[in-house]
Amino acid sequence: MNKTRTAILALTALLLAPATSAQSLSDGGVKVGVLTDLSGVYSELSGQGSVKAAQMAAEDFMKANRAYAGKVSVIGVDHQNKADVAGNKAAEMIDRQNVDLLVDMPTSSAALAATEVARQKKTVAMVVTGATTALTNEKCNKYTFHYAYDNYMLANGTGTAVTKRGGSSWYIIYPNYAFGQDLNRQMVSAVQENGGKLAAPSDATPFPNTDFSSYLLKAQSVRPKIFGTMQAGNDLVNVVKQYNEFGLKKQGIGLGIGLLFETDVAALGQDAFSGAIATVPWFWNFDARSRQWAGRFEKAFGKKPTWAQAGVYSATLQYLSAVARAKTDNSDAVVKALEGYSFDDFFARNATIRPQDHRVLLDVQVVQVKGKSESKEAGDIYKRLNTIPAAKAFMPLSENKCRM
Amino acid sequence: MFNGLVNGAFYALLSLGLAVIFGMLRIVNFMHGALYMLGAFAAFALGQLLGLGFWPSLILAPLLVGLLGVVLERGLLSRLYGLEPSYNLLLTFGLTLLTQDLVKQVMLSRFAVSSAPYSPPEVLSGVVNLGFVVFPKYRLFVIALSLVVCLVTWFVIEKTRVGAIIRASTENPVVTRAFGINVSLWVTGVFAVGAALAGLAGVLAAPIYSVEPYMGAELIITTFAVVVIGGMGSILGSVVTGFAVGVLAAVGAAVYPPIANTLVFILMALVLLVRPSGLFGLPEGAR
């Protein structure tokens, strides 16, 4: 029934379509499904803001491509950061709501579950907020693209930058689950490759965890140059709060952070993080182009964008422009239009989509958190230390385990 | 090991409140974690809205939480006395979920954050060198204050006339009423004090942990285990076990991190096997 109706609709759309537009869209339009966390721990850094960003991308695309006016729509769905929910919602969005693109997907496990469903149903998925390198390695597939960042890029960027700036010895703690273990492994090898060493073997901490005092006391006795924390979200906020409480900075122990979001800095205040080094794909006041987009977003949403939200805009827009190039929303054709494509937008600089594993390569920024007194305006939290060019920022193909 | 005392202090304060409420009123108060969170949130909100510092908040926030306790007990819980205990368990559990989401909404809409910063007062920031360890001053203060509060509560309930009245009111309300004592007023008072203790723990926690809507949810489970190990309703038991579990978890985390979160439950299982009424609890018949 549904299929017949879709067919009839498609036929009518074809008949009604002006002769100038050459595109063939499966159901008369392109539907973008933002699969995200609308209620939980990542709702602030992605959530409604990601849905808003995708909507902005859809509107901008339709304005620039008259042939698609009124044909792109966006829906936002909550996956609650749970793998099973993410899988079910992805299937429902594709089967019942005719979604052509899944985008965002915070939480690695949820991203893996949703992309597996997307693979089975031959639907394009662009993971922006999920971090695991498995998406472009052992779990890679023809329809999945990994945008913005991953654990390798974080560890490679921060580990290299901090070690080269004199952080020659590290003591690292990481949350004891897939993301943390992976990030710790990557960070340790980045530190060692750059001539740094571990002052003590890394410690796994319970997850989630609120009290990190025993590890901070251990850091005091081990005396590394850098205390590295691979914790994320609320756990990270607690680690950093207690790092300051125990006065480690005053004792000459620096802070290296695996994964840092703008919202973490807001939650604790800039001064608590000041001096810490992290790697990010983007930040809002990076340059004039970024500021211009961020201003538009803030006007529409009421808050400054996080890099996750900016990434969702960019990923959505690049998918839509691939649809325009392919003149169809047929997944195989769109994948072909995306593979090997090079582009440059306000978010993804010098970007290329690597055909072998679908890793989206882009310039990434190593940043240092400014103290409150250094920032010139609200939300001015990062000082750019250096840019890692796209070709060097991500896992080289020689280490890649993807077989597509 | 020493730093375990800080967590121990929170466990003790919380389980003390739980034990008082359970021992006296037979209410399994699942909302205790939310009251703890409200204490921390109140301290943060008082600072943001009225510019109040840590010290006034240390008094005011528990009072506010205690007041909320009065409203809860009078308005809702008192209607369930005489029914099965599972009713008040469900009610307090539901209220917890409601409170957490409400606070989340308020934080996001009013303060634009879902997890808020809070610093210790100037006097107590910084560290002291204790010889064997360099330790934050504020944490020492938390340990000391909690010990004092626990001792005072224990003393009042076990050794004073006020305590005698409370124990009588809950042991045998009919007879106590015959002596001209307003039992339901005392019951409300006990609940309010238990709630205020949770609020106090929350204020004390605010400078150490991030203030966020779900901060009580993780703690409450451990706290329940502490109360069970110590002996349901035993004041002394909950205080001693609270500190002991804090230290034990810290040692566990240092030796074998994955076990830190489960250690308390292993301990609970072992204790229940040997002494079903808990370490300091009296067998049900001896009450």
3D structure, described in words:
The complex is a heterodimer of chains A (404) and B (287). By secondary structure, chain A is an alpha/beta fold. Chain A folds into two domains: 30-149 and 286-358, Rossmann fold (3-Layer(aba) Sandwich); 152-280 and 366-392, Response regulator (Rossmann fold). Chain A has 14 helices and 16 strands. A five-stranded parallel beta sheet of chain A has the order 2-1-3-4-5, sandwiched between helices. In chain A, strands 6, 7, 8, 9 and 10 form a five-stranded parallel beta sheet that branches. In chain A, α2 runs parallel beside α12 (307-326). The two termini of chain A are 35 Å apart. Chain B has 287 residues and is mainly alpha-helical. Helix content of chain B is 71%, strand content 2%. Chain B has eleven helices and two strands. Chain B has helices at residues 4-25, 32-50, 54-75, 85-111, 137-159, 161-171, 173-178, 183-205, 215-230, 235-255, 260-274, and strands at residues 127-129, 134-136. In chain B, strands 1-2 form a two-stranded antiparallel ribbon. In chain B, β1 (127-129) and β2 (134-136) form a beta hairpin. In chain B, α2 (32-50) packs across α9 (215-230) and α9 runs parallel beside α11. The mean pLDDT of chain B is 88. The chains are: A alpha/beta (404), B mainly alpha (287). The A-B interface holds A 43-44, 176, 203-206, 208-211, 213-214, 217-218, 220, 234, 237-238, 241-242, 245-247, 251, 263, 266-269, 272, 303 and B 3-4, 6-7, 108, 112-117, 120, 126-127, 133-136, 138-139, 207-210, 212, 215, 218-219, 250, 253-254, 257-258, 260-261.
What is the fold-level CATH name, i.e. the topology of the largest domain in chain A?
Rossmann fold
C-alpha geometry of chain A? globular
What class would the helix/strand composition of chain A place it in? alpha/beta
The number of distinct structural domains of chain A comes to 2
Question: How widely separated are the two ends of chain B?
Answer: 36 Å
Beta-strand content of chain B: under 5%
Helix content of chain A: 40-55%
Strand content of chain A: 15-25%
Instruction: Tell me the number of helical segments of chain A per DSSP (H or I, 4 or more residues long).
Output: 14
